[in-house]
Design brief:
Elements lengths: L1 H17 L1 H5 L2 H5 L1 E2 L2 E6 L49 E6 H12 L13 E11 L9 H14 L19 E10 L2 E9 L6 H19 L4 E9 L3 E4 L1 H6 L8 H15 L5 E9 L6 H15 L5 E7 L7 H10 L6 E6 L5 H9 L4
Parallel strand pairs: 6-7, 6-9, 9-10, 10-11
Antiparallel strand pairs: 1-2, 2-3, 4-5, 7-8
Helix pairs in contact: 4-6, 6-11, 8-9
């Protein structure tokens, strides 16, 4: 059974890897997540098996029958014949953990593991149950040890009857699990998502951002035990919102990108000490900005304030028929294409999300 189960898992894993680009670009997959698992629809997986024919009637050829005997009518045409009692073919749904999904993503994109910073400053408490004691809450009672103590007492006192081996523990027999606290060096991380919600960013653009963020979360969650997410939306002004508002808000005003960067910087200064936190900044926009002066302010904030304190500053430009795409060109002009400090990517459509993930996560920062 174990070998069959492992073989099935390998088949499922292979199917997922083969269809990974389609899964990444599909919003249905994100909607199927729950309790750290994802339900993935896969094409039917056929396991080799024998198929037996209907032996109720004699055959002609190798079985019984005479020359001129009428042959059966064959299979009925679709829509004809009696109702069947067999199930039709259905899509197979397989539950896969987000950790397994991230591992598949890592293999397919050849993503390097991240070396977190800040481990020297953050300690995580771990509780290890490694001992036995005579007192404790009922929820920690060790039933096996309690029974052993009761059995030992019963035998030593001569009350034990092999013909009627009833053991009733008393208060003195009870044993409880005990724990000790250990301190483990760990690293926490925060993702600050920033998105332009001006009129030129439509529903499809927001959906692309939502899917990209899901896979970024999935991967980074395997690299850090503590991962926080914060969301900033902006048009001419910026504000912090929850995740639901982040993906559904649509404004009609102009765009001042610097407002988002200033708010992100303030949130970091107030809540996330860069010496203790691994900070990831992801900004999504269609590339429009109100003025060249504000773009100059953005470059200054990125270079002077955000890059020195973040593990990764990433800009994803989501293509829109209403957006000029100028901001990406301005970033390349200021920092140069292929700059190691800043990561940029143009996300033309859903099919480009997988390539964007490779760009964003491929540096192992």
């Amino acid at each position: 059974m174990d070998s069959d189960l492992n073989r099935f898992r390998k088949i499922v894993r292979g199917k997922i890897k083969k269809e990974l680009r389609r899964f990444i670009s599909s919003g249905d997959l994100v909607g199927r997540q729950g309790n750290k698992r994802v339900t993935i629809p896969l094409p039917r997986i056929d396991i080799p098996h024998f198929s037996f024919g209907n032996g109720e009637k004699g055959g002609v050829g190798q079985g019984e029958g005479e020359v001129g005997e009428e042959v059966g009518q064959g299979q009925p045409k679709p829509g004809e014949g009696e109702a069947g009692d067999q199930a039709g073919e259905h899509t197979l749904e397989v539950d896969v953990s987000l950790e397994e999904l991230a591992a598949i993503l890592s293999e397919e994109l050849e993503l390097p593991n991240i070396e977190p910073k800040g481990k020297e400053n953050i300690e995580d408490k771990k509780y290890k149950y490694s001992g036995i004691q005579r007192q404790g809450p009922e929820s920690l009672r060790h039933f096996k040890r309690t029974y052993k103590e009761a059995l030992r007492r019963s035998i030593s006192s001569g009350d034990y009857n092999p013909e009627n081996p009833i053991i009733i523990p008393v208060k003195e027999d009870r044993r409880f699990r005990s724990y000790r606290i250990t301190h483990e060096k760990t690293a926490n991380a925060v993702i600050l998502y920033m998105m332009d919600v001006s009129g030129s960013m439509g529903d499809e653009q927001k959906e692309i951002v939502r899917l990209t963020a899901f896979w970024l979360d999935t991967w980074l969650s395997t690299q850090y035990k503590g991962l926080e997410r914060r969301y900033i939306i902006h048009d001419a002004t910026a504000r912090e919102v929850d995740s639901d508002t982040f993906y559904k808000t649509k404004e009609s005003g102009g765009t001042l990108i610097s407002s988002a960067y200033k708010l992100a910087l303030k949130m970091i200064e107030d809540h996330f000490n860069p010496s203790e936190w691994n900070i990831y900044l992801f900004h999504f926009s269609d590339g429009d900005n109100w003025s060249g002066n504000d773009t100059a302010d953005c470059m200054k904030i990125i270079e002077t304030n955000l890059l020195p304190i973040s593990n990764l500053f990433a800009y994803g430009q989501v293509e829109s028929r209403y957006g000029s795409g100028q901001f990406l060109r301005d970033l390349h002009k200021h920092f140069g294409e292929g700059n190691e400090q800043i990561t940029t990517c143009q996300i033309k459509d859903r099919e480009s999300i997988m390539d964007a993930l490779k760009v964003f996560l491929g540096k192992g920062k």
